[in-house]
Amino acid sequence: MIIVTGAAGFIASNLIKKLNSEGFNHIIAVDKFDNPEKNKNLEDLKIQEKVERDVFFEWLDKQDAKKVEFIFHLGARTDTTEFDIAILTKLNTDYTKKMWKKCIDMQIPLIYASSAATYGLGELGYDDDESKIPDLKPLNPYGISKNEFDKWALQQEKRPFYWAGLKFFNVYGPREYHKGRMASVILHAYRQISETGKMKLFRSHNPEFKDGEQMRDFVFVDDVVKVMIWLMHHRKNSGIYNLGSGKARTFLDLVKAVFKSMKKEEDISFIDTPADIRDKYQYFTEAKMEKLKTIGYPYEFTDLESGVDAYIKEMKL
Q1: Tens digits of per-residue pLDDT, 32-71?
Q2: Which residues bind substrate (predicted)?
Q3: Is the entire prediction scored with pTM above 0.90?
């Protein structure tokens, strides 16, 4: 069996779909199954059992460890505007520590979700060199909670026999419709253009960047899933890895790709960045991806225009 936490979520449900397509149908889906919209992500998937997040460790203790092939721990509180430190510590840091210790005790390989939010404003760059992790300065409590676990993991003498922490950059693609404000700009653009024929982007409040030329490393969810499954089979070179496309692109590039895919005439305007996120806004992110490639990862990443087009076509179905 393969265990996937956060199973009803965006990345995890895409992962389960791909696992199913490769013949892995004994999937244990772990989540807090209290969101009917989010739970729709699981309706077309082959799952052996659903386990509530709060009782997962008790459930795991009753299993034959030899039957657990892998754990993908993707469940977390991912809202970057969440400021309740206690909730983030409980769900993102402490829960993952418990998962780590169980994987050691039961000899189960582990992949867990870190985040590019750990890099803050990128003062130290976006290099997944583990020696730099203690010096990173995340901008929000979510990023802090993820970085705290990364730091803790690197300090441990006892580790799962194989483990990888993945710093997800700006992931986009199908099955994110439930995420509200935290959904990708592509989904927001598709909805806004469908309703109004126009798209409003955040104005730049940084003199080094023109309006719409803020840059992000946008990575297609299919590529993210492909990396995770490759690592599951590879099971060597434990450590913390960036997971982006390796190529920063502007929000204007992204929105123009959405207009083109929707076959609509471009109509783009700008509004002020909300005050509650303005002083914590990243103007540039770009994953250094050499580390993953040096361990043998063989696949290219989808370019933004191709990824946007594939996503838009799926939304139209």
Answers
A1: 999 999 999 999 999 999 999 999 999 999 999 999 999 9
A2: 170, 181, 188, 202-205, 216, 281
A3: yes
Mean pLDDT of the 220-232 span: 98
Point out the annotated binding site.
10-11, 31-32, 38, 53, 74-78, 146, 170-171, 179, 181, 188, 202-205, 216, 281
**Do 90 and 203 have their domain in common?**
no
Which phi and psi angles does 250 have, rounded to 5°?
A: -80, 160
Angle at CA 223, nearest 5°, toward 113 and 213? Answer: 90
**205 and 241 co-located in one domain:** no
Q: Do 199 and 139 reside in the same domain of the chain?
A: no
pLDDT of residue 161: 97
**Binding-site residue positions for substrate:** 170, 181, 188, 202-205, 216, 281
CATH of residue 192's domain is: 3.90.25.10
Whole-angstrom distance, CA of residue 272 vs CA of residue 205: 8
Q: What's the CATH code of the domain at 295?
A: 3.40.50.720
Q: 179-209: string of b/e by CB count within 10 Å (b at 16+)?
A: beeebbbbbbbbebbeeeeebebbebeeeee
Residue-by-residue DSSP string for 35-62: -HHHHGGGTTS--SEEEEGGGHHHHHHT
| Residues classed as catalytic | 142, 179
**Euclidean distance between CA atoms 254 and 219, whole angstroms:** 12
Binding residues for NADP(+): 10-11, 31-32, 38, 53, 74-78, 146, 171, 179
Does residue 186 share a domain with residue 129? no
Task: Report d(CA 250, CA 302) in Å as an integer.
Answer: 16
Name the token pair of 105. Answer: 């005790």
Could you tell me the residue range of the domain that residue 273 belongs to? 173-215+248-283+308-316
Q: How many domains does the chain fold into?
A: 2
